Amino acid sequence: MVLQRLLERVEKTGELDRAGDPLQRGVRATLPRRLKDLLHGVGLGHPLHPVAVQLPVGAWMSTAVLDALPGTERAATILVGVGTAAALPAAAAGVTDWSEQSREQRRVGLVHAGANMIALGFYAGSFAARLSGNHRLGRTLAYTGLAAAGLGAYVGGHLSFRQAAAVNQAEPYLRQIDDGWHDVYGWDELTENRPEVARIGEVPVLITRVGDKVTVMMERCAHQTGPLGDGEITEIGGAACVVCPWHGSTFRLADGAVVRGPSANDQPLLRSRVVDGRVQAALP
Ligand code: FES
Q1: Is the CB of 105 under 6 A from ligand 1?
Q2: 178 and 39 in one domain?
């Protein structure tokens, strides 16, 4: 609870922006778009960062077990080296996601990254100590690094589960839609590849006519609930797509697939059909 309260204060600590804002601008300006998409996890189905951290965390946790056993110095050294090397791409994916998060999330993200950078420093030191034959020092540094990584993991949990960073933020809207078919729009009122916004109850949806088919997708962006109804329509790879006006996530209108980040999640679609000239939609 103490840690949670501290993190809630961090969310409101504007002084962190003095370091965070220039870093965010730097990350956004430096990385080419294709690399950013790769690091966000576009095409993977969800963000890359939580997948990429499995290797360093697994290696470092295994090191902690081996360090408690006799005669395991060589294996522990290899694991520390593997974990330390694997932490670099995991960090790159995390920083790329961080650069497109809300201000409050970025403040907490700085603490998350700081704890993990400290952990990485301890593990790099541990690796160097082990290579030079000082396994006692290597073990001490590794256990200290594990404590820092544990703190980083706790803060990462706050980011993911309390602040909903990098989750599909369009999904909760699905749960506000009742079962059954809902009348949403007139088929004849739709123009090819020009989406219209309608509501099912209180939930906004985006309706698009693509050829003789119709798609109905959630209108609030999977990344951070930006209004796709205000987004530009563009063509990528021969397919019409909608570009979120907030951070540029781009979704194919025909199936909701994300084709450009920062969202790594597809935009949820509803089932749709046309009955007596009216478009109807239902939960998938
Ligand atoms: S809200 Fe961030 S890209 Fe849509």
Answers
A1: no
A2: no
Looking at the fold, whether 119 and 96 belong to one and the same domain comes out as yes
For residue 244 and ligand 1, the question of a CB distance below 6 A is answered with yes
Tens-digit pLDDT profile for residues 89-103: 999 999 999 999 999
Q: Answer yes or no: are the C-beta atoms of 60 and 79 closer than 8 Å.
A: yes
User: Residue 130 is part of which domain span?
Assistant: 2-162
Output the average pLDDT for the chain: 95
In 10 A of CB 28, how many CB atoms? 14
Position 256 pLDDT exceeds 90: yes
Residue 5, classified by CB atoms within 10 Å of its CB into exposed (0-12), middle (13-18) or buried (19+), is exposed
Pick from 37, 246, 251 the residue to mutate for probing ligand 1's pocket: most ligand atoms within 8 Å of its CB.
Answer: 246
Pick the atom of ligand 1 nearest to 100's CA: 2
Last residue of a domain, one of 162, 194, 214: 162
